[in-house]
Amino acid sequence: MRSLPLRRAVDALVTIACGAMVLLALVPLGSLLWLVVSKGAPGLSLSFFGALPAPVGEPGGGVGNAILGTATMVGLACLVGLPVGIGAGVFLAEKGDGPFGRAVRFTAEVFSGIPSIVIGIVAYGLVVLPMRRFSALAGALALALLMIPTLARTTEELVRLVPGTLREASLALGIAQWKTSLRVVLRTAAGGILTAALLAIARAAGETAPLLFTALNNQYWNFRPDQPTASLTVQIFNYAISPYEDWHQKAWTAALVLLLLVGVLNVGARLALRRSTAGGRA
Amino acid sequence: MTKVLAAVLALAVGGVAQAENLLITGAGATFPFPLYSKWFSDYNKQNPALRFNYQSIGSGGGIKQITEKTVDFGASDAPMTDEELAKAPGVQHVPTVLGAVVVTHNTPVEGLKLTPQTLSGIFLGSITKWNDPALAKDNPGAKLPDTAITVVHRSDGSGTTAIFTDYLAKVSPEWKSKVGAGKSVRWPAGLGAKGNEGVTGLVKATPGAVGYVELAYANQNKLPMALLRNHDGAFVKPSIESTSEAAAGVDVPADYRVSITDAAGKNAYPIASFTYLLVYKDQADKAKGEALIRFLWWAVHDGQPSAAALDYAPLPKAVVGKIEKTLGGLTVQGRPVPLASSR
Amino acid sequence: MPPPADAVARGATLAAPPPHLPAGAAAHGGDRVWNGLLVAMGGAILAVVGLVVLELVKVSRPALAAGATQFLVQKTWDPVAGSFGALAFMYGTLVTSVIAIAVAVPVSVGLALFLSEMGPPRLRPVVTFAIETLAAIPSVVYGLWGLFVLVPLLRTVVEPFLARTLGFLPIFRGAPIGLGYLAAGLILAVMILPTVASVTSEVLKTVPASLREAAFALGATRWEAIRLAVLPYARPGILGAALLGLGRALGETMAVTMVIGNSPEISASLFAPGYTLPAVIANEFAEATGDVHVGALAGLALVLFGLSLLLNSVARLLVRLVARGPARVAA
């Protein structure tokens, strides 16, 4: 049996070590955020948000079309991804106890781990080849496929959290099952579902790999879903691996814009969660 | 009723307005990208309704996408092989300009001289340090640093790689048997980077690195270029003149698929090449097809002067003459396009 | 974004399923439509996954014609000769993932312990917020940071240091260029940290207080209580967290391809450039011509899919095992 002071010393050492681990984890984050802000901020300007990319060597230019492209594809992805994802989640919560439900749940869990590049290949085969062109639609499909499984699992958890008593009370009053689900259960879970949806959107906005060979890229403004489209993430990638200093600068600024976008979505998600839990307790 | 009519009208007008603004998509080689992006920008200024969206994803990508018809035109420095052409029947190669593949490096050595033996040795991984005796022999008086050589090559399917390996296979039997030539090869050594841009970026960022890129990229980034010993034994600097001389004596076949590496000529640069736009002989889309063919006519006439400013060599006059006949033979939905003068 | 950790940890303790009316009570037309809609949504997930698998298998068939085992064990990736083997990429994926886990797990455990046992409670929300922020950063931004910060740091400071002090080990030999397995592994470690840390945190929360209290009652210091009571109980869960992190590391594409050097060769040294399964697909897919080349890339995607499937399943099983804890302790 070792002496007490020694054991206390070891205890203190371990505490310090754990604290060091925390610092170690936070250093890359601090470095990254600091760099993105300090290197990216000087490039911020109205024209950066609104202009098209300039050819190599010419000053000015911006990522306006990339921002629009990301917004378009994420928006299109939501049209499919949100209903199917949330719907599947509600299915799992309400009817997910039989063998079919178990199969769906297992598939959703496992599917949520699929690398996004594999989804990109599938979207290429399903949309780009038959349509014979790269398009925002293909990119949007890839993003939707990425959103669905995580959203389904999260929604299921949130819906199950709604107290059974609420459901029973509604049914006891003679309200139809489907109305109960929609008006009572989902409304109660709405805040949490909104959170999950915002987080899924934030993730979709940050994806690069599946867009590489579905949406390709585009130097111009694009308002048509059946044409190739620029996106913030692909643009950052192209700028970063280029040899041009001014493009590197633009990469940092575009990264700042992307982080701001993702940050706003995440903060929005947190606020929605706070409001929903506060309301739920009432 | 009026509401329906208004809606239909709006759609029609919108549709017409869309048709006026034409977007033509192409993809392929990074080799000519600096020049193409200038051409498309200049042409768009003259024809505001026409926009060319070109994505430089590498010659391999250009060939694949035009084969699958997911783009309106492709671009490649390596002419398509017979197998590739068999998969894409009806594709026409149109040379647009001449370029040079230079060997660039991140060392303080000025005027580095490389022979076929040392060049292939470096890329085979048998010469691993800058102050290797083989390099010292060809560079008397130069202070070669005692650092390791980091080879940088392409990670994507590249026409630039095809040109470079085509040359190495011609001048080094060891390279030919061990590695061979092609858009993607199994590199014995080194790091892979995406596109000419990626290789340039990596060489620029890594001390002791060596890579092969198109002349314009090395110049734009103020990277040093090696002098290569050509077929006639002289050490030649890459330039517009030495590139043009490489194409001077070559007999260009009817389909333009030819290799001009290791060309004869006192001042000929040994790693030069045509670069091609790939279009279908019969264009399926009327508006896009006409616009594309007219652009090609403009490129080989009015586009050539801007080539020199970006370190690409203009096409020899004889070749332009041949291209004019070829373009006259291209059809849009079966009918040829009038091309008496460029627009 | 990883699924909410608490959902995974609580896997077995879901809220009771909602009451179902006896069959025949769903007389409302609305109910039938609603039920049908829900089942369709559930089926959609199955259909989508089925589609993914079918598409991958179909496209990869030409490359696997020589035999699937041959494809898996062949070292060379030679587009010119038309001969493709997955080994170099599996090796690269394995090495970078192992580095990532080796760094991320200890840091995560330390972090989770700090959050749950040792640290001042006031710091908890700050640190949790910071970790969640790490999780939200897109891969390409990590790649940007890696390319312009981590790689030069490795090239100028870390790798020469390792070569000088530990250069006798084969893993630290060769010219320090910054790019390579080490850079990719370290960036992956940072990227999977939020996943591993949050799941580990949740796992530690499920350890029954009685265990810890019993250790304290016997006179243990805080660390001894953790070492003797908490960690052994949580070990399967921590393993599960590590496997989840591994699963995420497997699929990371952009940050890895920007710093790994993109060279399909197997090398013992961590300083050497390498290649991973997702990186080669990202680089070569847009331009692969020929059924065999495309098939080979699709085959790699299938391997990736299979690996992540396996890892995710095992990981979730382990985490559920810990969450189901009280039954184990009672038995």
Blueprint (SSEs and pairs):
The complex is a heterotrimer of chains A (282), B (343) and C (331).
Chain A: H1 4-40, H2 46-50, H3 64-95, H4 99-111, H5 116-131, H6 136-161, H7 164-172, H8 177-205, H9 209-212, H10 232-240, H11 245-281
Helix pairs in contact in A: 1-11, 3-6, 3-8, 3-10, 4-6, 5-6, 6-8, 7-8, 8-11, 10-11
Chain B: H1 2-20, E1 22-28, H2 33-46, E2 50-56, H3 59-67, E3 73-76, H4 82-87, E4 91-105, E5 113-114, H5 116-124, H6 133-138, E6 150-154, H7 159-171, H8 173-178, E7 191-193, H9 195-205, E8 209-214, H10 215-220, E9 227-229, E10 235-236, H11 240-248, E11 272-280, E12 282-283, H12 286-301, H13 304-309, H14 317-329, E13 331-332, E14 335-336
Parallel strand pairs in B: 1-2, 1-3, 5-9, 6-7, 6-8, 12-13
Antiparallel strand pairs in B: 3-11, 4-8, 4-11, 9-10, 13-14
Chain C: H1 5-9, H2 29-60, H3 68-73, E1 77-78, E2 83-84, H4 87-118, H5 123-136, H6 139-166, H7 181-205, H8 209-217, H9 222-251, H10 254-259, H11 277-284, H12 291-323, H13 325-330
Antiparallel strand pairs in C: 1-2
Description:
The complex is a heterotrimer of chains A (282), B (343) and C (331). Chain A is mainly α. In chain A, 77% of the residues lie in helices and 0% in strands. Chain A has one domain: MetI-like fold (Orthogonal Bundle), CATH 1.10.3720. The model of chain A has no long low-confidence stretch (mean pLDDT 86). Chain B contains 14 helices and 14 strands. Chain C is an all-alpha fold and 331 residues long. In chain C, 71% of the residues lie in helices and 1% in strands. In chain C, strands 1-2 form a two-stranded antiparallel sheet. At the A-C interface, α1, α3, α4, α5 and α6 of A face α2, α4, α5, α6 and α7 of C.
